[in-house]
Amino acid sequence: MNGPAPRLDLSRPRDLGQLISDGLALYARHVGVFVTIAAAVVIPVEVIVSGIGLGQITAPYDEDPPLAALVVPLAVEYLVTAPLITGMTIHALLRAASGQQPGTRASIAAGLEVFAPIFLAVILAAIGIAAGLFLLVLPGVYLAIRWFFVAQAVVVDGRRGAEALRRSGELVSGAWWRVLGIAIVVNLIILVPAAIIDLPLVLAAEAADRQVFALAGSILSQMVTAPYLAIVSTLLFFDLSTRKAGRIPAPVSPPPPGGGGRSGPPDPPGLPPREG
Fold it and tell me: Is the pLDDT of residue 273 over 90?
């Protein structure tokens, strides 16, 4: 971490191992930036929604919480926390690609500026995914992967609303199983640090009979793990953009459930802007 950081090459295709290792290297190199970004989002959102809204700051520990206590935080994470952290992380990576140090304040401000269009696109995706899950489950899973890059399509490619969903679908077309597999692997990787952080605080909550300790564990684990998910998903977004634009063959994969052909010709990958 002493000396100039190498310029991040976002136009280079990466296989699974490179996505994981490059993501870890980026996270470790700028860990203070990424954890601070996540803290700026997770702490206020969790305190307001779970701490105050669901009463977890003052409530006794509940080892069998009601359904709302499980569903509401997950919905807020999908609709608010993860998109905000992703938008901020994308800006940090674009700065690294232009040879600059990712700035914490600049990344947070940039993420807040694009949150409205990201939120709108994510809402549209959530409606479609929820409908698919309600009907037959598998269509919902298919759409969740097809629309995996909605935030990146908004921030990098400047797409809005349904166009962001369409752009994500174009990139995932022909690589659905690959994206699913990478998403599963990355989520399995972060299970370990999440458990290391979360479990002791859950035990403390049980011993003290105070739900606030479990809430603290949830906040800390999200702060540590969410940036890595955002980094790898953004690297994968640029990987797919490069492969589509340069016709670099992706690993062969069978067609995803429910079919889903390409909805239009792919656009060239978003190039990182040079910032002064």
Answer: no
